[in-house]
Amino acid sequence: MTQEMFCAVDPGREKFGVAFGFPDELVYAAIVPAERTCTALGCAASGNWEPLSEWSTEGRPPTGCAISRIFLGDGTSHEKYAELMREYYIVPSLVREHMTTLEARDLYWRLHPPSGIFRLIPLALRTPPRSIDDMAAWAIMKRAVSVIL
Question: Which of 8, 90, 129, 149 is deepest in the core (most CB within 10 A)?
Answer without folding.
Answer: 8
